[in-house]
Amino acid sequence: MMNLRPPLRAPLRSRPPLGLWPLLAAILGFGLLLAPGANAQWSNDEVIHIASPERFTLELRIGPYEPSAAGITADDTGPLFGVELDYHIWRIPYVGPIGIGAAPSIGIYAADGSTASTRLTLIPFPLLASLRVDVLARELGVPLVLTGKAGLDMIFGVHSGAESQTSFGLRWGLQLALELDPLEPRAARALDEEWGINHSFLFFELFGSTADLGDPMAWAAGLGFTF
């Protein structure tokens, strides 16, 4: 039987940026393009609409993830599906909210030269603190939000036909988000009035883990909501 146990410490892998800079430039450029209209639209709406309090952020994410586990097929990078829920514990004036939360995810990987029954199910479960810098969107009308994250990464590896593994390490992340409110201000206001959703956004995030089963450098993209 193939031994799927991970090494005590996998070497760091260096991988190409996969064309990420053009994507980040596109998000930044689109946010700046929306900025002038965003200021005018929301200044008119503020006369008749008071936004509901922002207490939580929910993110739905997907992206490639290469675990540091021996025996995994070289080109098997997931994907990894996940959610993140953060609670805003305090807002720094003219900066943004500080939050705490969890970001569970799951990915299924095949072993080298194995049958379909030999799999590794990877379940990262990081506990994170975050700082969302939304001053551009709230004060200047530029719908861009930059978020930094750090915390404890717990990763559970469930092997078929072998012993399961658990590893711990540091999880970090850096996210750039584009808020969608300026595209349709009336719809955004209706979401807030009816469902308490203050903002919706698209995001791109670079992140990594020092856990033995983790990926030292990965990325994810998805859709998020602040409510």
Task: Summarize it.
This protein has a single domain (20-45, 68-226), classed as Porin, CATH 2.40.160. The chain is 19% helix and 43% strand.
Helix content: 10-25%
Q: Mind summarizing the main beta sheet?
A: 10 strands, antiparallel
Alpha carbon gyration radius: 20 Å
Q: Average pLDDT across residues? A: 83
Morphology call: elongated
Strand content: 35-45%
What number of domains?
1
Count of alpha/pi helices: 3
Describe the protein.
This protein is an alpha+beta fold and 227 residues long. The protein has a single domain (20-45, 68-226), classed as Porin. It is built from three helices and ten strands. Strands 1, 2, 3, 4, 5, 6, 7, 8, 9 and 10 form a ten-stranded antiparallel beta sheet that branches.
Secondary-structure blueprint:
Elements: H1 20-45, E1 56-63, E2 80-92, E3 96-102, E4 105-110, E5 119-124, E6 127-133, H2 135-139, E7 144-159, E8 165-179, H3 185-195, E9 199-209, E10 218-226
Antiparallel strand pairs: 1-2, 1-10, 2-3, 2-4, 3-6, 4-5, 5-7, 6-7, 7-8, 8-9, 9-10
What attributes characterize this protein structure?
10-stranded antiparallel β-sheet, elongated, disordered N terminus, Porin, 227 residues
